[in-house]
Amino acid sequence: MAQVIDAKGKVVREQETPDVFAGSTDGKANAVFRAVFRELANPRAGTASTKKRDEVRGGGRKPWRQKGTGRARQGSIRSPQWAHGGVVFGPQPRSYVSSLNKKERRAAMLAALSDKFQSGGVTLLDTTKLDLSKTKALATLLFGSPKAAKTGTPTLIVFATDELATVGASLRRTGRNLVYVAVTHTGELDVKDVVGCGRLVLTTAASDALVGKYTKESK
Fold it and tell me: Bridge partners of 11?
């Protein structure tokens, strides 16, 4: 059951959880973990690099003779035990890209959304008369007041891709200065975003788009 709020933040009605998000999420934790791991790992640049002893400049001369000085024998000032020497087993450029097949990605997103719906973490926003011009208005809509927004529950607002130029632009503009609010659209929605937020706010168009997408894929 999800609450539907109007442009002023008042609950106007309650809506049943869509059938596609009403299924059991048992046994899906591993798929969700793998999806989140992939989404966090793939953007990593993998450019960390250290120099080995043969790559560090200098150190071509033996620092002192082998015997007779009373000191330990040394062959180069660029050996790993010396400051500014080479690094042993240091990081080298690599790729962090992790693959995940389409069916598992779908199962992970479906499980994440289903868990949100079934735990009461989803709120639907009726954008019929939505007119946001200031951040204060969005803070009041979501948290009751601008002061409450400073310590509120981390909230993710999702609008439909079709609303990019209208409602989406307004939500992004007014939400960018709220610390606990993130705004995205259905085309960019990731599993980590759904799992990481405490409250998921879907516009009615976004809810319809997600239901339509996953109902169609299930067939």
Answer: 5
Separation CA 202–CA 216 (nearest Å)? 19
Tens digit of each residue's pLDDT (9 = 90 or more) over 153-168: 999 999 999 999 889 9
Number of compact structural domains in the chain: 1
Residue with tokens 């150190």: 59
Residue 121 within any structural domain of the chain: yes
Q: Is the pTM of this model over 0.70?
A: yes
Residue span of the structural domain in which 106 resides: 2-25+102-218
Instruction: Return the ∠ at Cα 155 (arms to 149 and 158), rounded to 5°.
Output: 130
Q: pLDDT tens-digit profile of 83-137? A: 999 999 999 999 999 999 999 999 999 999 999 999 999 999 999 888 888 999 9
